[in-house]
Amino acid sequence: MRLNDDERAMLDGRDGAAAQAAMDLLVRYGDALGAERLVDTNNVCGTVGATMPFLRDYALKESGMDSVFSEFSLDTPNKLDIPKVKVFSTHLQQGLDPENAHLQGIDEQVVKVYRMGEEYKAKLGIQPMNTCAPYLTGNVPVLGEHCAWMESSAVIYINAVLGARTNAEGRESTGAAMLTGKIPYWGLHLEENRAGTHLIELDIEIKTVQDWGLLGYYVGEAVQDQIPVIDGLRGAANLAKLKHFGAAAASSGGVEMYHIVGQTPEARTREEALRGRKPVEVIRYGAAERRLAYERVNTTARESKVDFVMLGCPHYSIEQIWEVCELLEGRKVGANSALWIFTARATRQLADQAGYTERLKNAGAVLMTDTCSAIGRVMPKGARVVALDSAKQAHYLPAIMGVEAWFGTTAECVEAAVTGKWQGGLTA
């Protein structure tokens, strides 16, 4: 891999041992990928905390967070002095909500380690957004901007909806990018790799968030890690719909980018989305495919008695929180059910100001931050059957937590929280 003078100087130790280790990691990573060079980035989203049990123990035994960063972000057994980050860096979701740890069954000692991690991030200059959707809380890259982001639902959103450029990075590459402002120039950073590969022609109208989740789930399975081009959309989708579509496609498959003809920035026309190439396959999506996606995403569900409803994967926007408040107006969560809604801490502050947090509390629901049931493995004790409006969460949570999962609309989930029963179903 070719390095410029600045990169070579970092590799030679000009900026200290931590930056040197970071550059060494990026060179090895880039060589393995076949990248010819690095590219500058000033927008990194990753994780450097110690919320998992193993990392918490490591942080305590090895004398601090510098040890965790050195070992698990820079791939070196030597404890290095980690400097402030070189570029704008954002922290993604973590393993618990420190304000609601008691409800999540988290021990106070674990919360102390969490707070230690928060202080550490602040010292390094990392923005503590603690969300899987940083674009909801101020990190909004622009068309053509080179980024280094983790989190599958965030990666696909900024690639497709915003037209920024990133591959699905990991803890190591994002940690190294924070200290160097560099990332290997390969994959979706290259124009020629952003062309659509599969054409998805819509035979039915895609209107609701549920519709978009089912479309994403079907498309992800169909194209795997390729780039679908959606054509035939009537009207425009909003943020919540595109958020759930991308999260579903990145879960059932490995989609990191998509195009919607006439809507996403690199797909003003079908020809532009495909970059003038012939699609590998043309796939029609109609009522039968929608039904199949619904059956697949609900494959674990058996029992109609619901004891836990989880909303907020990816993290809820303020609009979605408002919607739940409206659906709960004058109603209460059932005595044998729990309703947890997950969002970013900054969005929670806005919900506090708007009175939504109090409205949810009065209805028996809880607004939580920083994590979700899959990432944090946090659920009410004894929960066996879960209702979700996220195809992504319905895909992962049964495998992670051993529960049954119903996927449906937000209204159906709220109804389940109030009545304790699943009464949802796919409408024509």
TrEMBL record:
Name used for this protein in its record: Phosphomevalonate dehydratase large subunit-like domain-containing protein
Pfam families linked: AcnX (PF04412)
One MF term in the entry's GO annotations: lyase activity
Taxonomy, superkingdom: Bacteria
Keyword Iron: yes
Boundaries of every Phosphomevalonate dehydratase large subunit-like domain copy: 1-415
InterPro entries listed in its UniProt record: Aconitase_4Fe-4S_dom (IPR036008), PMDh-L-like_dom (IPR007506)
Record keywords, A-Z: Iron, Lyase
